[in-house]
Request: fold
Amino acid sequence: MLKKITSCVLCLLTLCSVCLGFAGCSSSDGNFPVTVGHTKISQKPEKVVVLSDNLADIVYYLGYSTQIAALSDSCTQEELTRYIGSVGSEDNPDAEKIIASGAKYVLTEKPLPEETAKTLKDNGLEVILHLVPTDEEMLKTLYLTLGKIFGGKTDGAQMGESSYNRLTKTLSQAESQVESATVVSFCYLYMNEAGILSSFPYNKTLPTQEGYFLNYLAATNVATNFTELKVDQDILKISNPDFIFYDDETVLNYLKDSSTLHNMSALKNSRTYMLPKESLSRQGNTMLSTQQFMLSKMFPGIVSPEATGESLQKLYGIELNKDMKYEEGSDDANVKIVQQRLVDLGYLKLTEGDSPTTYYGSMTAAAVKDFQSKNGLEATGIADFKTLEVLFNSTTLSANGTPYIPNSQGTAEAPTSAPSEPETKPSSSGSVTPSGYNITFTPDTVYKEGDESEDIRVIQQRLVDIRYISFDEGDSPTTYYGSGTKNSITMFQEDNGLEATGIADYKTLKALFDVE
Reply:
């Protein structure tokens, strides 16, 4: 069976690297050794432990996630935690678990306890401490540095630069689509550790990581009027933002109960949306999905499909219509699919061994109500057409603040009515035609860099579907087998126990299209 990519994005600024020295052989391709800051890296790191949520997100975006051996509990992205084990908290991880992971390096944004750091050092592990980027220059430096660490001084640096350019280009393009729209205002709110209402300004005195991201929304962040992270409630009341995004239910309840803030228009007009705080501090793939989510709420009907998202109906095997409505007591095959989507997004928790059913009970109603409340919908607990449209949209975020989109052939957890794995149609000649894709290959089929064929377009599309390759906005799969396709095939082969040649031979194609 096809093995899903399970790597996190290591996002690290090496302006403040603290390392011990990387032992090992030099590579023969000229990429290693490479010196980053005061650190000399002799060979490509094979296993890395990532303690920072942000670093994991960036490494995933860069495409180096296959080298992640373990994460901390701070890393909550479903696509990572489902397959990668934990070594405990980010502040005080379990040193023995880190050592047992087989990793040589530990990436973090926070200094480790002295005893933990010493234990790791005594066992030959390198701890790399990185600063948190709060502006474009710092973020670009981080991407370049990370690329060099994982890919070397030539290939890695190019990967870091191209990934950073792709990230900022995508953010800017989405932002530019709404610049001529009616000006709207917003504010992001959370409770700090002391239970005080706080936000994210972005100015010379408060250049926050989260505030930097909020600049990419073509909307007015009223928090820029604040002089500290603590919210000035009088200013917030006067600013009266059109939209409010908030960290969790505690914030929303606080606003509704506040004698000062309860009359804000965003509350009256149900323009409040839950967005976990960590979604704003991840500077890789999550940065794009979070921007899409926020733009789709503030500028519905104006932003492009890339920002408003796409329907996931086909991927889940459900067809929505305006007459749909499921409520407590309903019994329907579609209820099983609704439950599966709620499970995928983290709103419905099933007991181990249980699975979605066709019955819409009290647990489903409670999960739908929770989902509605956190997505700006009337919290009725009834899955009507409007609720289902939001539920099955690609920009809709999970309870942990990340999108969950199954691959084009469904997921292992998908309900039985969702699309199944591709069937094969073998012939006496040994040819294979995976269902759902317009391609047939035989034991003699081989595609390599420089080749051109219609089949290559299908191969690239399959790589897109399973997240091994992506295209810039406006681009799409082509008939040409270039270096990007070769690199994606190589990564896929490494992930699935195949010889990493970068050549799409018969064995690789069978694994790629997940056929026997």
About this structure: The longest strand covers residues 185-191.
